[in-house]
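User: Hi! I'm a student and our assignment asks us to look at how structure tokens line up with a sequence. Could you show me two examples?

Assistant: Happy to help. In each example below, the sequence comes first and the structure tokens follow. Example one:
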Amino acid sequence: MKRARRLPLCPLAAVFFAATASLPAQTVPPQPIAPPPVTSTTHSESGLSESKAPMTKDQAAELFRSVDEILAFVAKDSHLKASRPVKRKLLTRDQVQRDLRSKMSEDEGAKRLERSELVLKKFGLLDRDFALKPFLLSLLTEQVAAYYDPKTRTVNMLDWVKPDEQKSVLAHELTHAVQDDRVHLEKWGTPGPTDISKNVGDDNRHIQLDEASTARESVTEGQAMAVFVDYELKDLGKTLADSPEIGDRMREMASDTAGSPILARAPLLLQESLLFPYGAGLGFEQQLLQSGGVDVAFAGALDRPPGSSHEILHAQDYLAKTPVPVLTMPDIHGLLDKDWDPYDVGVMGELDVRIITELFGGQQMAGPLAVAWNGGIYFAAQNRNAAPAVKQTPASIGTIYYSQWKNRDSARSFLKIYAGALARKYSALKKVDLPNGDEDHLLYSTSEGDVWLSLEDTGVFISEGYDRAMAKQLEAKYREAQGRGPLMQAGSQMPQHELTMGFRSLLPGIGVPRAVIDATHRLVQ
């Protein structure tokens, strides 16, 4: 499946950092297990040559030795220092799959993924019958390449891919090693709280200070992409900085998922959230390189990271430190907490709007409406009285989504698009006639409770699962609260938790996705 995308996304892939020849050689010795000799190879759809037998001991040793040389290139290209040794490990297919399963089964991450899945299905971003976890495991297994583990400071390589073809991948992954030296990625990448919000103070703390891990991941992966491109172009005497058209072409080519069968079948949410850090991150870094040079694009972006998808998509606002709109959560716990348990709260950012609008209204509407977005927040709660089996489904979840827009026409367009998609989510959907009703105030009854949509001025309020009387009380509180809350200053260390980007943060790292490797190889050739 080939789709022309409005989002400036470059497929799953990463690119890496460059090096400094003055760095001392690393001292970690290679210790691969001697495998049988390679007998033949096949070409995967990603463009990588895959051996039917694992690489030999000599091949592994040569690959391990190349780590130090590539690390020096990364450090020089990025102006980031590589001050600590990098461990290296060779993994089999079985080991990679076990590692992915283990990461996806870790207690905290697994619970957060399950919660995220229910909320995403309630909003209609995933089909109700979609089995998320097994699909993710298949998708990540298809796309996995070498990857860097900040917990152990180890670069993991694959024993079934030809050594020469892993070197450009190493450029990407070793970029993460020099980033790690500067900011300690494991902590830097998850800057906010992961607990469940229990009161209005927690609500606004999550909105203002919750994790911006995917926005930050867009920096780290975008930088790694930039270095990866430079490494691929080094023999041609070119770089991304002096050949920006290469980055533009690379993002276009990477949007073709035809060479990745599982990715091509993935829901739009998974495609976009998985690809965003690589493609949009590369675009963000490219603009920083052109505006401020290497130090602004690398050390500068790590020291003052963006906090939202808006800043990644609009690097000029990040550079100008333009405030990003953040709405205020009212105190609704007194209304809800008797019958509803707080479940999730966060920001519906510009990326979320693009995905929702494209999914519900088509690609033609996605770009213009996303640009008109001017802030959005959501809240989800779970019905305390729901049966245990129902609590495993979106039917137990009630949601509130309040958004503001730069003009009334855009606000009305979004309301209509959202209302038009309700039949996809609910059985027994029925529009309720209202006295003196109009197209800006819509009420529906569904198998999961009432749905209320309301436009006032440029603010759209949407309640799903709460009865009409409760929805009206909630709406009044949301509208009254706006205008009193602070704006988030771009780069002010106040990251946001965004619906789709928060989901992205729950996925285990896979290094350079193969779809991007293929696009880069085709471009350079």
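Example two works the same way, sequence first and then tokens:
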Amino acid sequence: MLDEVVDLSRLQFAATALYHFLFVPLTLGMVWLLVIMESVWVMTGRQVYQDMTRFWGKLFGINFALGVTTGITMEFQFGTNWAYYSHYVGDIFGAPLAIEGLMAFFLESTMIGLFFFGWDRLSRRQHLLVTVLMAIGTNLSALWILIANGWMQNPVGAEFSYQTMRMEMTSFWDVVFNPVAQAKFVHTVSAGYVTGAMFVLSISSWYLLRGRDVEFAKKSFRIAAAFGFASVCSVIVLGDESGYSVGESQQAKLAAMEAMWHTEPAPASFNLVAWPDEAGMKNDWSVEIPWVMGLIGTRSVSKEIPGIHEIVSANRARIVSGQQAVVALEALRADRTDRAALARLEAYKADLGFGLLLKKYTANVAEATPEMIDAAARDTVPKVAPMFWSFRLMVALGLSMLMLFGWALWTSVHGTFTRSPRMLRLALYSLPLPWMACEVGWVVAEYGRQPWTIYGVLPTRLSVSALSEATLYGSLAGFVGFYTVLLCVELYLMVRFARQGPGSLGTGRYANEVHAL
């Protein structure tokens, strides 16, 4: 059945994306910590900072190598599992991915090779330049990928052509400077910086709790605390900007995130916690904070935020309009010279994607019943409960890390962190938090786009390849198994080299002596 093919294709891509995103944030964050550590070495000449760069760089390299392996296969899925998607929007979506490969990935990969093998062949300043270029390449890679993803969320700079029967780019620069893509980029990379900082902070705390490599760990801790605090503040500020852009371009996603069923008088209240009732399209109970959602979502006290009922009603009208566009398009497929059909398509083309939602319920869109239109309109809002709770978990994790990094920075400035085992243990046990926040953040971003692959343009149901269920079950099992092996390899290597500590550099400067805190 087509429904199962769609669900399995979505599940496979979600599984591979979530696995891949276990590696990406650490790469984004660690690389700038390496730049900071090596910059201090170049400026001061103190050997410990070079050792820090080389040791943390080794852990960065392990993560990068396995992250690349998990990322390469994802792009092939667009052709294998999402063939119609690739045909329909490939000319637009493929452009930033091609630039990412040709520009960012090649730069990043080349500089990583020089980083590891250039210590004895390059001067200090030359090697620092390599590290900076490696960091730039890593972030450029994230930029172009998120430009592609941002276009899926807010498809600007493109329009449908009846002659080619697919989307075509009208403005490359509109795609590049898409406000949703830019907001996603800064928010995502900031989350990666937090992840890198937490990684260094947690492992440094483990060394300090064991009383080993104390001077090395103290300096690593201080850098991670300062970088992490600045980064988590950026995540919160830029997350607010990202949320505002969602409110501008994806009102259904914002309403689902906030379990806002009805439009409230401005400024709207914020549901701190609630119990959404999907069937009744209401909240059984909620704890509200007046005005807050209106101020955050609109940055005004007079602009309303539409509720789910009103969004569904507005989208129903767009589906009725889009029904006319689909009928006209089918007439043009039969006769490209049909001027009446062309005029009709041009009149309703803006809602073509909404009309395509009816394909879920009938092959002949012209014969769609009012009940089918109602069902399609309800489909335009993602499930509320997963969105509502995932968003709140992400926010709670972010605030927890803000308090942790604030505490770590405070004790770092006052030089008391080595005498605070409680804080060090908290830092150690908090190691998984940024990964959890990143994963649920991607759930909010991607699940909240449903039922679209390209928001308002191409429904997910129409994007899949003609594959059998057996093929999808087999490939899904293969991907999950392979990625699980890679994750286990990553964890084994990370734990092994972290336990060895800077003594693994083989310099003889670290004997891992144990000291009492």
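Here is something you could point out in your write-up. Confidence is low (pLDDT under 50) at residues 513-517.
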